[in-house]
Amino acid sequence: MYDIAVLGAGSGGYTAAIRAAQLGAKVILIEKENIGGTCLNWGCIPSKATIASAEKYIQAKKLSKFGINAENISFDYSVVSKRKWSVVEKIRKNLENLIKSNNIEIVMGEGEIFSDTILKVNDREICFKKLIIATGSKCTSLGNLMPDNDFIFDTNGILLLDEIPENILIVGSGASGIEWARIFSSFGKKVVITEMANRLAPMFDVSQSERIERLFKRSRVEFYKETVISNIENKKVTLSNGKVLNPDIIMLAAGRKPNSDIKGLNVEKNKDFIKVDSNLKTSNDNFYAIGDVTGILQLAHVASHQAVA
What we know:
Layout: E1 2-7, H1 11-22, E2 27-31, H2 37-42, H3 44-61, H4 77-101, E3 105-108, E4 111-115, E5 118-121, E6 124-133, E7 137-139, E8 152-153, E9 167-171, H5 175-186, E10 190-195, H6 206-218, E11 222-225, E12 229-233, E13 236-239, E14 244-245, E15 249-252, E16 256-258, E17 269-270, E18 273-274, E19 287-289, H7 300-308
């Protein structure tokens, strides 16, 4: 019997497991894909590693201003990509060691809920006193924009590119859309952003949105607000403002949906997000939920704070 079972080993899940173990609980951590969740494997870490390479490239092109002669500055994006994955793998291994050093058992597999105190993973029954659901979120499609990772890429698929095309259309200007617009433009590619709201980065403060728009104008990132894609035909994209584009790829950065379709889970939801009270307890007294799956605010550090609570 475990005091706490944690379903999902992302930023919220592993933080909750470690904190619980430090407080003396017997903890088991269940993950169906990779330790570290979206942030480590498909979000914050790989994108920041790529941004670091983009910044080095920009700095190298400006070396002559400091009297340093560096001719024929270029980049190899396949090497940028390879370094990104090596950073992810190194952090993941360190994280796994940290979890194990806190005497937390890790089980790889998909959890299925059998009762208020029993989970099943890989035909193994796991008994627990309390369950923390930290299953996170996944990329979503938008209307008729279905990612195929050939012409239309989601925020996971974009990380698999070993070469950057010359012309990129980004749909959505949340954190991911802004980051990748910065990356692509830094490497000298043409970037266009569409945003259905009346300003870029609509989840941010207005002052931040205005700052981002000024920076994008300076770096020649084209953007259209209150605009959506109205038609795509043979890779020719018509926008709702009448503008016609011919991007090499489309990156869909228009939000995420919760991984709340857990087998056997029977709790109250709000548009697929798991409803929680002020103590993060679900409608089942034995189950708590944290992170993206609650829909409160889909950020890794928010999940971590909820985990500690």
